[in-house]
């Protein structure tokens, strides 16, 4: 199947997953995964299974790495894989906050070749394919033209486990906040990165999440003219435990700030 065919199939699967979430019963008491802040609902599990079935039918034998099942440490990143987050922003979903998404991306063994983000409450589909741009419906996406950190609107996120000072993002957050025009926290990495791709925000960073949180957004931002890296400036890779996404113009300035935190002490 061509890459365009894969993208169209991924859009169809993400749309059906979003429909399933909207049809689901109101979430009840969720399961706890690693700690009391790391939630999983029955809908997370059911929707990931739905996506797995549809991907396996369309692409037999291809690896599928999902947030609720197989972890990234079990995959050889020199081989292709689909990365799936059935509900990015489970706490928002459980609490009734309208910021959660379905993330679906295809890693071809060397790069993220395509990504789809379905904004479930707002019924929006964002899609990107290498060399073909980033889109929301028929609207081609472009990052913002903001050229300095002091004029930027950024977003960030925090991990469920806040006990690790190297990964809880508190020190970088405190460092960055005085330097920017405004800060936001959506609680949904896919929508954070879609906001960068649409020019709604100028940048986003997070220091602890999974590749399923970032892969679709990474290709979306890059195809919209932005840049996505680790803190050291190397291109983002699914094995990285962090991501920095910007409109490219403020990227080095933000990296400098984040690296100062990383090397302090």
Give structural notes.
The protein is built from 7 helices and 14 strands. The longest helix is centred in the first third of the chain and has 21 residues. β10, α4 and β11 form a beta-alpha-beta unit. It is globular. It has 2 domains: 138 residues, Fructose-1,6-Bisphosphatase, subunit A, domain 1 (Fructose-1,6-Bisphosphatase, Chain A, domain 1); 115 residues, D-Maltodextrin-Binding Protein, domain 2 (3-Layer(aba) Sandwich). By secondary structure, the chain is α+β, with helices and mostly antiparallel strands. The model has no long low-confidence stretch (mean pLDDT 91). The strands form 3 sheets. Strands 3-4-5-6-7-8-9 form a 7-stranded mixed beta sheet, with helices on both faces. α4 packs across α7 and α5 runs parallel beside α6.
